[in-house]
Amino acid sequence: MTVRDATPDDHDAIMGILDAAMLDTDPEAVRTSIESGNVLVAVADDRVLGALVLEGERIEAVAVRRNRRGQGLGSALVTAAFDRRDRLVAECDERVRPFYESLGFAVEPVPGASGRLRGVRE
Predict the structure, then answer these.
(1) Sequence-distant (≥ 6) Cβ neighbours of residue 90 within 8 angstroms
(2) Fewest beta carbons within 10 Å, which of 28, 71, 88, 112?
(3) Residue 58 has pLDDT above 90, yes or no
(4) What class has domain 2-85?
(5) Smallest Cα–Cα separation from 61: which of 96, 98, 9?
(6) Pairing state between β 47-55 and 39-44
(7) DSSP secondary structure string for all residues of 18-38
(8) Per-residue model confidence as pLDDT tens digits over 69-85
């Protein structure tokens, strides 16, 4: 498995992964992010297995194909994103808090947003 910058040809596979994870993402915004070099993909045998969308220092979305979860792909995507940024910020809910904490994010509640958490890694 390798992590690389997404290409326009990856768009449909990325959207399939993000949609399957029930993440609220706009296909045109993702396309623009790909063109701007702000989307990373985890790939094996020329198949996109996971994707991470950045907007500045903020992780907008990260998802991995269901049958490939728990194999370190999400961690590899976040680590690759951190290699490209000095600081990362991610919002999440309690279910994925352990994932972000395991990657060195300091996670705290978002003021005024019940059940939402914000993680920061510097």
Answers:
(1) 58, 59, 62, 100, 105, 118, 119
(2) 112
(3) yes
(4) alpha beta
(5) 96
(6) antiparallel
(7) HHHTT----HHHHHHHHHTT-
(8) 999 999 999 999 999 99
